[in-house]
Amino acid sequence: MLIRTLLLVGAIAVTVALFGPLAGEAVQQMTSDAPAPQSAASTDQPPAIPPTGIHTDGNGHYRVTAMVNGTTAAMVVDTGAGVVVLTEQDARQAGFALGPSQFTGHARTAAGDVAVAPVTIERMSVAGVERRGVRAVVAQGTALPTSLLGQSFLGTLSEVRITGGVMTLKD
User: Fold this and answer.
1) Could you give the 3-state DSSP secondary structure of residue 140?
2) 126 phi and psi, to 5 degrees?
């Protein structure tokens, strides 16, 4: 009986590994005779937000629409960026009024070196996940064509995963 159970568990694991999440759900439904155990819902915690899948655009980039201080900003997910990077236009829409003297830093981007100004985003949300006090920089001028979703936001998530061309963000 033990060997039969081990073989069944092994077959399920191989099926899930070979055929992905859909096969895993089907196998779970086929092998689950008993109803799922119920858990007591806690009223102290908000419900968990399910992971959100982001598909690539035609160029292989993962694009999201973020809410930055109550305004929308189109962003490219950039796991190599240490912080969120806003274009000057997105920064102005989000309420940042920056003068030339505030661009005291420099960053190297795919478009070349660009002057940046450090800011803190009061409230930012992406795919239903909200964070407050997010470190960011504003790129001066038009060298950066779109804002970047960097590690100062991504690093607060419990999981960022890419499987089969779909990026999953999990709070």
Assistant:
1) coil
2) -140, 125
Q: How far apart are CA 118 and CA 116, in angstroms?
A: 7
Element (H, E) at 138: strand 129-139
pLDDT of the chain, 171 residues: tens digit per residue = 333 332 322 332 322 232 233 333 332 333 233 333 333 333 444 444 455 678 888 888 999 999 999 999 999 999 999 999 999 999 999 999 999 999 999 988 777 899 999 999 999 999 889 999 999 999 999 889 999 999 999 999 999 998 888 898 888
Q: How far apart are CA 149 and CA 62, in angstroms?
A: 10
Which residue in 93, 109, 117 sits closest to 143, CA to CA? 109
Q: Are 152 and 135 in contact (CB under 8 A)?
A: yes
In sequence order, the β-bridge partners of residue 123 are 132
If 0-12 CB within 10 Å is exposed, 13-18 middle and 19+ buried, where does residue 138 land?
Answer: buried
Q: Kind of pairing, strands 166-170 and 71-77?
A: unpaired
Token digits of residue 79? 């796991």
